[in-house]
Amino acid sequence: MIIAGLQKLTLTDFPGNVACILFLKGCNFRCPYCQNSELIDRNIDDNYILKEEVFDFLKKRQGVLEGVVITGGEPTVTKELPELIKEIRDLGFRVKLDTNGTNPQMLKELLDKKYIDYVAMDIKNVKSKYFETAGLSKKGSEQLLENIEKSIKILKQSNIDHEFRTTIMKNYHTIDDLEEINKLIGKEEKYFLQNFEDSEYVLDHKLEAFSEEELKEINNKLKEKFPNTQVRGL
Questions:
Q1: φ, ψ at 195 (rounded to 5°)
Q2: Of 89, 95, 100, 156, which sits most exposed with the smallest number of CB within 10 A?
Q3: CATH of region 3-231, choose from 3.40.1160.10, 3.20.20.70, 3.40.50.360, 3.40.50.1110
Q4: Contact by Cβ (8 Å): 144, 126
Q5: Which of the four pLDDT bands, split at 50, 70 and 90, describes residue 44?
Q6: Which residues are bridge partners to 121 per DSSP?
C-alpha cells in the first residue's frame, strides 16, 4: 500500500462531515482528464507518506475531524484497503470511499462489514464510449463493464448514503449520453456532473470544458426527466 498524499482538511468532499483526504497510489484506469494522474502508476516516483505518520495525524485530530475520505488513484486496487479502513474506524472516524466501481467484490466486503459510511462512484460514460473515456483499450472490456454494473447494483441495494458522478467534457459527452447514464443508475439516484478542468496534471490538454451557459442548459434539460441530477458549481 502506498499512501501518496494527505490533505489535512476538507469541508466539501465528505457531505456533512469535517474531514481529511488520503490519496492512495495506483489505478486501473488512465483517464485523460484525471487531476491525479501522478497517482496512476505505482512504479513511478517513490514519494509516499508513512502509514505511521498518517495515524499520528489522525490521533491528534480525534474530536476535531469527523471523517476520512479515501481516494486515489483507485483505492480498491489496494488489497490492504479493508484493513486500513478498519484501523481508521477504530479511531472513531467515519469513512467515505471514492471508487470507479471496478472491484464490486471489495465494495461488497466493505459494505457487509460496515466499514464505510459514504460512497462516491464515478461513471465515466455510456458503455460504447467507456474505455475511450477511461483511457483504456477494449481488451477485457466486457468483464470491466459487468463489474461496474455490479457495483451500481450493490450501491442501489445498500442502505449506505452514496452518489454517482461523471466528469464531463465536450470531447466525450453529449446530452444523450448523460440521459443514458441516468437511465442506467435510475432517476431516484443522486447524480452529479462535474465540468472538466484543465491543469498541469491532466494527460490530454486538448480536452474542452463546457461553458457556464452550456452547463446551465444541460442541468435544466436533465432535471426535467431526472430531478436528482445536478451540475456541481451552478
A1: -70, 140
A2: 156
A3: 3.20.20.70
A4: no
A5: low
A6: 99, 164
